[in-house]
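COURSE: Structural Biology Practicum
ASSIGNMENT: Worksheet 4, Part C
STUDENT ID: 0417
INSTRUCTIONS: Below are two proteins. For each, the amino acid sequence is given first, followed by its structure token string. Answer the questions at the end about the second protein only.

PROTEIN I
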Amino acid sequence: MDKIRFIGESEEIELYVLDSTRLAGINYLLASDVEAGDGECYILKETTPEDSAEAVYEMVEDNGILDYLAGIFAEQLEDVDIEF
């Protein structure tokens, strides 16, 4: 399982990438703070500038988009229960 480092405004956390999807030309990741079992889930939106050598993501905070993407990820990962 891929592991990424997410650097937020006040902290740095390592997340495990559970799945990814592309919607309206934008890449999204479903990530968790644990590799298996119950943990915190996050949906990240790619915001990488064209001239960047590294991928840049930000947390999705819009509840409407979160709900929509959670439904997509739930369909893709049939054995995972996603709650926000």
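PROTEIN II
(use this one for the questions)
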Amino acid sequence: MPDSAFDPTPDEEWAALMRRLRAQPPARPRPFFYARLTARLTAPVPARPMPLPAWLRRPAYAVLLGAVVLTLSGDGRVLPPLVLPAALGGSSVPPR
């Protein structure tokens, strides 16, 4: 049966872990890391084609275009009023 008097407390465990981490030498980057990093940062960025035109990427133009499309997409007719069946409390004669 283990004796709990010898078990370290959580604070002692953290302190031991921190001592072990401080005792290790500091980490060093791999050879040529900074040379590759500098080369990558200074390399020209290839231009990618944009999927949308510049004017459409602005929200105001996109909203305006959406409003125009919704305005022109209808056929100009007004929908007839909904007639409820008599079982649901509606009249059997459609209103005019």
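ANSWER KEY EXCERPT:
Q1: The mean pLDDT is 80.
Q2: The chain is about 40% helix and 0% strand.
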